[in-house]
Hints:
- By secondary structure, the chain is an alpha+beta fold.
- It has one domain (21-142).
- Helix content is 30%, strand content 26%.
- The protein is built from 5 helices and 7 strands.
- A 4-stranded antiparallel sheet has the order 4-3-2-5, sandwiched between helices. The chain has a 3-stranded antiparallel sheet with strand order 1-6-7.
- The longest helix has 14 residues, at 2-15.
- The chain is globular.
Amino acid sequence: MRVLLAALVVVVAACAPAAPAEDTARGDALVAAVNVAEPGSTVDLRSVVGSDWDRVVFLGPYTYNDRAKEALGFDFDIEAVSPWTNTEGGMLVVLASGSKVVAWFAVPSQQVGLHCLDQESIAAADTVLTVIEQQGGFRSLTDPDLPWC
C-alpha cells in the first residue's frame, strides 16, 4: 500500500506544471525602464517585459503558497522560488496567461519600489503604471487605478 501511495504522489507531482526558471532579463528590463523614466511619466509593462501574458501579479514579502494561489487563481510554488518568503527585500512579479506562469522575476526593493502593488492582479491592458520619486531619488511604480498607491 505504501508503494502504491508513493507512486501516486510521484505521478501527481510529475503532472503538475513546473514554473519556468526566473526570467532575470525581464526583471532587469523593468528596473532599467523605471530608473530612466522621469517621475510622473508612465511605464507600459507590455512594452518593457513583452506581451505574452494576460495579467501580472505582484507578490510581496511573506507571501506563501496559499496567498500566491489566491492571487493567481492557480498553484504556484512561491516558497520554492522567492527569496522573500521569510524576510522583506522585494517583490516577485509573476506574468501569467490563463492558468499558467509565463515568466516571473524578483525585483529588490532597493532597485524599484513595488510595495503598493502587493497582492494585486492587473490585466495586461491596464499595466501602464506611473513612476514616482521617493525621498532620496528612490523610484517606485504606482497604479493610478488603486487609491492606496
